[in-house]
Amino acid sequence: MKRLPHRSVVVVGAGVAGGLISRQLALRQIDTVVLERGGDHQGGAEGRLPTQRDELRWDIRTGLMQDATKETYTFRRSRNEAARPMRRLTAFLPGTGVGGSGSHWNGQVWRWADYNLALRSRLAQRYGAAAIPVDMPLQDWGVTYDELEPYHDLFEKLFGISGRAGNLRGVIQPGGNPFEAPRENPYPQAPLETTEAGMIFEETVTRKFGYKPFPSPAANSSGVYVNPDGMRLGACQYCGHCDRFVCEANAKGTPDLLLFPWLARQPRFELRKHSQVLAVDHDSVAGRARGVRYLDLTTGEEYFQPADAVVLAGFTMTNTRLLLAGGIGRAYDPATGTGVVGRNFCYQANSGLAVFMPGRWINPFLSAGCTGTIIDEFNDDNFDHTGLGFLGGGYIGVNVGSGRPINTRRLPPGTPRWGSAWKRANADWYAHTFAVGVQGSCYPHRENYLDLDPDYTDAFGQPLLRMNFDFRENEQKLSAYCTAQAERIASAMGATLVGPAAPRSAPFDARLYQGSHITGGTPMGADPATSVVSPRLQHWDAENLFVAGASVFAQNSGHNPTGPVAALALRLGDDLVRYLEKPGRLS
Amino acid sequence: MCFSPHEAGFVEALVDLMCPADELTPGGVECGLAIFIDRQLAGAFGRGERLYLQGPWRPGRPEDGYQLPMAPAQYFKHGLAAAERACAQLHGRDFAGLDMAAADLFLQAVAGGKVTSGEVQLDVWFNETVYPLFTQACFSDPVYGGNRGKVFWKMIGYPGLPAVNGLNMTKYRGKPFPGAAAPLSMEDFS
């Protein structure tokens, strides 16, 4: 193994978090190297017409995603089961390559309601401490929304987010999300166009229910845009190939378009692609990370990269796995509820139902990743849970983001699965259906956690991460409740047919895509007994080791995670500048 | 190509049953559906690309996803042979030799888990492997061999490529989209 020259900062992963942290460091010309296991998607078949528009290759066969033969995950629903590997990665889709999952994402950028960062305190105050189930280890994050607001603002400007403000400096804005945390500035760009289905939803919820619909906040660029770094976005072409695809029109805010080309021009920045990080080298006596060991996939040679500060900014699962494999911090033990690494692993309880409207031209192919119209009345703690028997909720909305024909065909229940009648139903309904969806929250459960699998290994001989997860009573109840609200709304639209409503339920089904918004495993917090990193994302047992990304979330919300991921990453970038100037525990 | 003559006959009979010639499309073989399935299984997908094939092997329930130590092409053929054995037992002939009505009932029984054949779970085989290949054959870009002449895209009104809809988004919102009548595939651009 070759030892490389010492660097100030080494960052694992060139995704949203790694890119934003590096930007803040580069502004101060701090010596930084980013290690990324994959290559660059820009300019390849995945990023050029006509090959970009290939549903079979990029969507169905998941051509841009992590290759399960190299690394996958095992899963089991309870501790007395033997785990099985996800032999195909379909339930969630980690990306690989420059941009990470932020390259193939749809682009919803939310500011979560401010109370989400102190959810235990909020719920205990509103319903009494006894209302929080004993097997739900909710905890506060140790950071307030006010501290993050400037970083949300900066991220929205860097990625040119399109949307309509809901709460401008405490004043609720018409047409925006009234539950939004207060923002200093409006979104930098106007919202995307509303789809036909979105208009149907908007009219129904406004007129019949008095809810407040608003356009989904989007990293799909509604216009031509230049960000504060001088990086450009084109205008979205509503092509319907966003999630799971690279945008060939340069109209989707992604790290590979907006951050890494800018970083490449900065004097003390280096990106090393095709570099598979194998381990964090850790001195447990000194409480320090020495650096990282990685494999150069282009030569097969192993390197050791020493650094003053090590930042884990991989996918949710990667951060947890590197800490567990390195024995850094105490592994979580569900039997006793003690230990920290792997705890508070959360998914999302997403669901939906189809709406069939023969008289309306929905034209699902005229859409972008975030052409959604949404209400937040039933999300998280935006409504009174007294007597409901669960905590949490979800947004309800109509996200028409694709008309790709292999996967986006809805047929009335009872339609034959083949033959002339099947074809006729496809012909009749393709352009005239959409779904009302719920993005449901998921709060931690004592038995939902990550650990290392004792039996299965990856292509590099290292243990796979094991996901211990099922949808527990709380998520099943909230999904039943929110899906019933969605059904009530759908039934009021004047549709010929609605349904069937399918709330998320157990057992966890590894075959179904349920969103890639998995969180936790290295939660942040003020108490080292229940968190892996401090509120400054500094590892409690190694002061020069930092963790960024959705793995630090203490719980998941009914909103997409990228907004808080980005705000926390930008703040960590600034904190690292302080740390390097004066190493020690950050406060 | 990976099918024996007998396997090809089974798949051709299958796609002609699942996609009969009618006013909407020609028959499945003529639409290229059998060719599509053969090419997919002969290629990277059939050989197990992106499929984690390390042990230990633990059979599971359907919700656990694919858990067999076989690449998809092998599994497809293994299931096909098992389906033929069941067909011979029930009807005394090959699947390709059944009339349309009998073949349809047999396939419904397979899909519904009502036909057993030794150790092979035929419903899982059909629902998780065969059926997805069938719908992919219908609706993929014709460059892969199925959906010949873009018949399925025309049938549903999917405009295909290049789908640059910056202006169309508002112009055709809530209205029939003219491009849906003449879809374009990747082949039209190469």
What order do the helices and strands come in, and which of them pair?
The complex is a heterodimer of chains A (587) and B (190).
Chain A: E1 2-3, E2 7-12, H1 16-27, E3 32-35, H2 55-60, E4 73-76, E5 84-85, H3 119-127, H4 145-158, E6 167-168, E7 171-172, H5 196-209, E8 214-215, E9 225-226, E10 232-233, H6 255-258, H7 260-263, E11 269-272, E12 275-283, E13 288-296, E14 301-312, H8 316-326, E15 343-346, E16 351-356, E17 372-375, E18 394-399, H9 420-429, E19 433-440, E20 449-457, E21 463-468, H10 473-491, E22 497-498, E23 519-521, E24 545-547, H11 562-581
Parallel strand pairs in A: 1-14, 2-3, 2-14, 3-11, 4-21, 14-24
Antiparallel strand pairs in A: 4-5, 6-7, 8-17, 9-10, 12-13, 13-14, 15-23, 16-19, 16-22, 17-18, 18-19, 20-21
Chain B: H1 5-18, H2 33-42, H3 72-91, H4 100-111, H5 122-139, H6 151-156, H7 168-171
Helix pairs in contact in B: 1-2, 2-5, 3-5
- The top-level CATH class of chain A is Alpha Beta
Shape of chain B: globular
* Fourth-tier CATH superfamily name of chain A: FAD/NAD(P)-binding domain
List low-pLDDT spans of chain B.
Answer: none
**What composes the largest sheet of chain A?**
8 strands, mixed
- Summed over residues and divided by their number, the pLDDT of chain B gives a mean of 96
- Please identify, by name, the CATH architecture of chain A: 3-Layer(bba) Sandwich
Secondary structure tally, helices of chain A? 11
- By DSSP, the count of extended strands of chain B is 0
Low-confidence stretches of chain A: none
For the secondary structure, the number of strands of chain A is: 24
Proportion of residues in extended strands of chain B: under 5%
Alpha-beta classification of chain A: alpha/beta
Shape, principal axes of CA atoms of chain A: globular
The overall number of domains of chain B is: 2
Q: First CA to last CA of chain B: what distance?
A: 24 Å
For the largest beta-sheet of chain B, the strand count, sense and barrel status come to: none
